């Protein structure tokens, strides 16, 4: 058999969790170990944290500019979280999927719901849970990026965020980061082999059968 090529359409891998449950660490490990996936760079109206770079970590926008992009339909999803707006620019994601490259999303349940409405066939949804409420609070305090009142607000918000776990395809309980990462890698490997993502497969099978 000659002339038949099987390509893979990229997928959108969503990781969601309460703040402090470990999705940022898992995302970083995945990006460092896998050349077939890149992080989606979101736009946000919040202020940069120490070390964050505009255009790499986020596109930091004014509220006015964010609103203009939203009204033009330039976001795949957008949401307001802790008083700030977040959104995913549409064009770079669609281009990546078309060339067979995966895109990783670190977004909350609101954004995930919107992606599920616009691109359900391309979406793989993973929710990261902490092993306990006490562990979550310790992680937030140890991170030392936010003042005490923000930590308290994130803990209060966690219950609502966790209530949406049933909307996700996979659940990872992050008690051990190495084990959680292995589980995430297994999910990604399996999803990449899904029949619906393989373009050219029907022609390949047809020619294979004709040759038998």
- Percent of residues in beta strands: 15-25%
The major β-sheet equals: 5 strands, parallel
- Strand and helix order: EEHEEEHEEHEHEHHEHEH
Tally of discrete structural domains: 1
**Structural class of the secondary elements?**
alpha/beta
Low-confidence stretches: none
Please give the alpha-carbon distance between the first and last residues. 11 Å
State the share of residues found in helices, binned by percent. Answer: 40-55%
> Mean pLDDT, nearest integer?
89
CATH architecture: 3-Layer(aba) Sandwich
Based on CA atoms alone, the radius of gyration comes out at 19 Å
How many DSSP H or I helices? 8
Q: For the record, what CATH class applies?
A: Alpha Beta
> How many runs of DSSP E, i.e. beta strands?
11
CATH domain topology? Rossmann fold
Would you identify the CATH H-level superfamily? P-loop containing nucleotide triphosphate hydrolases
Strand ordering within the main sheet: 3-8-2-9-10
Question: Which overall shape is indicated by the principal axes computed on the Cα atoms?
Answer: globular
């Amino acid at each position: 058999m000659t002339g038949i090529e099987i390509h893979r359409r990229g997928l959108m891998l969503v990781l969601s969790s309460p703040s402090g449950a470990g999705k940022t660490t898992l995302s970083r490990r995945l990006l460092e170990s896998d050349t077939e996936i890149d992080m989606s760079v979101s736009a946000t109206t919040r202020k940069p944290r120490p070390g964050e770079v505009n255009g790499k970590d986020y596109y930091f926008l004014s509220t006015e500019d964010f609103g203009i992009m939203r009204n033009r339909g330039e976001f795949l999803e957008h949401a307001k979280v802790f008083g700030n707006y977040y959104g995913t620019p549409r064009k770079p994601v669609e281009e990546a999927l078309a060339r067979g490259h995966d895109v990783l999303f670190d977004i909350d349940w609101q954004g995930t719901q919107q992606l599920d409405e616009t691109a359900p066939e391309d979406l793989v949804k993973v929710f990261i849970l902490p092993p306990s409420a006490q562990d979550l609070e310790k992680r937030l305090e140890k991170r030392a990026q936010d003042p005490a009142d923000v930590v308290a607000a994130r803990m209060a918000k966690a219950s609502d965020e966790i209530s949406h776990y049933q909307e996700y395809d996979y659940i990872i309980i992050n008690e051990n980061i190495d084990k959680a990462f292995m589980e995430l890698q297994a999910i990604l490997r399996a999803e990449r082999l899904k029949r619906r993502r393989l373009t050219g497969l029907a022609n390949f099978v047809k020619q294979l059968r004709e040759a038998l």
